Fold this protein.
Amino acid sequence: MHIHSYEKLWLGMALLLIVGFIGTITYGTVGAGVQMVDDSGGNVEPGNVSEHEEFGEPGVEKVGENEYDVHVVARQFVFNPGSEVYGAIEVPVNSTVNFYVTSADVIHGFSIAGTNANTMVIPGEVAEITIETEETGEYGIVCHEYCGEGHHNMEGLLRVVPEDEYNGSTQ
Ligand code: CUA
C-alpha cells in the first residue's frame, strides 16, 4: 500500500505531538518538584489540634543558627499565627524557614504571595514548606481553597525583618 508522503509527514507530526504531551505532563508531575500533601509530615488529629505538642501552641521557633520552624493552624477563617487576631508571623531575613501547616476543620490553602510557598492544608495532614527569606518586607498569606462563607477574608501576614530588629516572637 502506498502512503502519500504528506500523509506520512502528518502522521509523524501527530505522533510527535502525543509524545510531547506525555513529556510535558510527566515533567509537570515529576520534574517541576510539585508534591502532594501526604503523611510524610506526620499526622494530626484534626479535632484535637489544641492538644498537639507543636500545634497546641503554634508559632515561630528557632531551631538552628539561621533556621526557624513555624507551626501554623488553619481554621475557618484564620491562620494562627498570621491572621490579625493572632498577629503576623515574624522571621528574620537571610534565614531558612520551615512551615508546618495543618487544619483544624476543613481543607484550606496556604500561599505566601511573592514566594513559591503554596500548598493545600488538609485536616489530619501536615503540609511542609521551606522558604529562604532573602528580602525584608511584608508578604501576604492567602487561603486559596474555598473553605466556607468567610473564605475570601481568610488571610494572614508574614513579616520578614532585618536581623537586628528580630525579637523572636510573633506579633
Ligand atoms: Cu480557608 Cu479558604
Notes: The chain has a mean pLDDT of 90. The chain has one helix and ten strands. The first helix runs from residue 5 to 31. The radius of gyration is 22 Å.
